[in-house]
Write a structure and sequence with these properties.
Bound molecules: flavin-adenine dinucleotide, flavin mononucleotide, iron/sulfur cluster
Shape: globular
CATH architecture of the largest domain: Alpha-Beta Barrel
Strand order of the largest sheet: 1-2-3-4-5
Number of strands: 20
Structural class: alpha/beta
CATH superfamily of the largest domain: Aldolase class I
Number of helices: 17
Oligomer: single chain
CATH topology of the largest domain: TIM Barrel
């Protein structure tokens, strides 16, 4: 099969779209004229490949920009091309505004976000129709095909996140699928150059093998089944434990809490992090099936570790919230209180710290009807986010909440905060709750003293320094692979 890309603002769609085609000759103007070039290309390709070779034609069902191709005209266009193609593949948008127009949807968009466009086109053509955009769940795919909205679903990033997506589904192991988080792999670096030191070379957040498939295929096999102890059951510890256990080692994981997942407990409640929750849960299932022995409610200390006498010790003890040195901080709570103790959260909220955690927590609260103001000391918010995530996050924040940059909170009281801007102007904001999200500090110091307790010692994830799931996953995987 061959796919011709007639969407996303590339060459063929530049002719069909009134947004870009301003020609006054026979190649521009009416739909018939604008369709002339794509049709010519299609006819030529058909001539080359012959009648029995399938051609899939990709279109944007709606460019979702002012002055662009809308759905009604796209349906008419599909009727013009349908006898020349075997499959119409419905995406949306244009690459210049890839996130905003859902060419590559973000974690804030519904899964299968272009399905209504595909369904509308399917009603009007005889050839089969495929839909693409944010599909990462076999059940949803099954449902939209079953409902007759499309004949096929095309899967992009999910296949990258977990190349065994289809196989796991067929084998009844869908709960082991690592779901694509739509965290913007096409744009991995933080928008802020100063924050780029936290970014590793590019690979998928949930698939540490990605972009390194050949390298890992050459990796040496373990010489023996080793006794491995993992400290911490967040993403980093879980990935390390799974990798080591799947390679034949005997793995124990100590977790001080009664649950696994580390920081990701908040995804049980958060509205936009459902895929992160699925990822966490897939790791828990994989750890169980790989035979990892889990010691819950166990604080690993020297005595515990000595008793276990591990050959390899992997410390994935994560990070803790940093309490800001602000006068009256005892009147404030850590931002994640909104998930753990929602009954304590009033209507009017001031959130100190406009990094990603502060911004996303603020958005979560604002969408629930709270009045939120975020105060940030730096000149911009969410600086550590990559450009694509910012494109999705900031416009949503603009609709829902307020923020001030270049302001330093000087005092927190029972009724609100006092702050100073860079010119020394003082301001006050009243609040029912003051929350802070002013960074995390790694637990590296705690675990460093464990270093002499095993022949092999690793630190992974936030325990090295507080970063993202991507680093925790990758470093956990590497530690598991390095035990030979
Ligand atoms: C609110 C919030 C939202 C976030 N959102 C995102 C996001 O959308 N995308 C993203 O990529 N990243 C996000 N992050 C960052 C991400 O969650 C972390 O980078 C990642 O979870 C770190 O995983 P970890 O395993 O290294 O550590 P942790 O998740 O901190 O896990 C460490 C575990 O070790 C346990 N532990 C510690 N000491 C001991 C001990 N001595 N004995 C036994 N157990 C111990 C702890 O109880 C904990 O369960 C977010 C973080 C927060 C706080
Ligand atoms: C890193 C990356 C690169 C892409 N490159 C192309 C490309 O070269 N050609 C193309 O037609 N689509 C490309 N796409 C778009 C995908 O084909 C797909 O339409 C999009 O990711 C939405 O589907 P998904 O949500 O299943 O990933 C790319 C997407 C990503 C994330
Ligand atoms: S990096 Fe993120 S967006 Fe890209 S495939 Fe992986 S999980 Fe999906």
């Amino acid at each position: 099969m061959i796919m011709l890309h007639g969407g996303h603002g590339w060459l063929l769609s530049q002719f069909i779209s009134p947004l870009s085609n301003k020609r006054k000759d026979k190649w521009g103007g009416s739909l018939e004229n604008r369709a002339r070039f794509p049709l010519l290309v299609l006819e030529k390709v058909r001539k080359e490949v012959g009648e029995n070779f399938p051609i899939e034609f990709r279109i944007s069902g709606d460019e979702r920009v002012e002055g662009g191709m809308g759905l009604d005209e796209t349906i008419e266009y599909c009727k013009i091309i349908e006898d020349k193609v075997d499959l119409i593949h419905v995406t949306a948008g244009i690459y210049h505004s890839h996130v905003e127009t859902k060419a590559f949807s973000s974690m804030f968009d519904p899964h299968g976000c272009n399905i209504d466009l595909a369904a509308a086109i399917k009603k009007n053509v005889k050839v089969p129709v495929a839909a693409v955009g944010g599909f990462n769940d076999p059940e949803l795919i099954d449902r939209v095909i079953g409902e007759g909205k499309c004949d096929f679903v095309a899967v992009g990033r999910q296949q990258f996140a977990d190349p065994d997506f289809v196989m796991k589904t067929m084998l009844g192991k869908a709960d082991e699928i690592a779901p694509c988080l739509r965290c913007s792999c096409f744009n991995p670096l933080p928008a802020d150059p100063d924050a780029r030191n936290v970014a590793l070379p590019w690979h998928c957040t949930v698939n540490p093998l990605s972009q390194r498939e050949l390298r890992w295929r050459q990796a040496p096999q373990p010489k023996a089944s080793r006794n491995v102890l993992v400290v911490g059951g967040g993403v980093g510890g879980l990935y390390a434990a799974i990798t080591a256990a799947e390679r034949g080692h005997r793995v124990t994981l100590a977790e001080k809490k009664p649950r696994l997942g580390g920081h990701l407990w908040f995804t049980d409640t958060d509205t936009h992090k459902g895929d992160l929750k699925r990822f966490r849960d897939s790791l828990i299932v994989r750890a169980e099936r790989a035979g990892v022995k889990i010691d819950f409610e166990t604080v690993a200390d020297e005595e515990y570790i000595r008793a276990k006498a591990p050959y390899a010790l992997i410390c994935a003890a994560g990070s803790e919230p940093a309490v800001p040195p602000i006068k009256g901080v005892e009147n404030a709570d850590y931002a994640l209180t909104v998930y753990s103790e929602p009954h304590r959260i009033g209507k009017k909220i001031v959130l100190i710290g406009g990094g990603l955690i502060g911004c996303e927590t603020g958005l979560y609260l604002a969408e629930k009807g709270h009045e939120v103001t975020v105060l940030e000391m730096l000149d911009d918010i969410a600086k550590e986010a990559n450009d694509s995530h910012r494109r999705a996050l900031i416009p949503r924040m603009k609709k829902q909440l307020e923020w001030k940059c270049n302001v330093k909170v000087t005092e927190i009281t029972a009724g609100g905060v006092e702050y100073a801007d860079t010119d020394g102007n003082i301001g006050k904001i009243a609040a029912d709750n003051v929350l802070y999200s002013t960074g995390l500090k790694s637990n590296s110091k705690t675990v460093e003293r464990f270093r002499p307790l095993a022949p092999l010692f690793f630190t992974v994830g936030d325990c090295v320094s507080p970063r993202f799931v991507k680093q925790a996953t990758y470093e956990g995987f590497c530690a598991g692979m390095d035990i030979l």
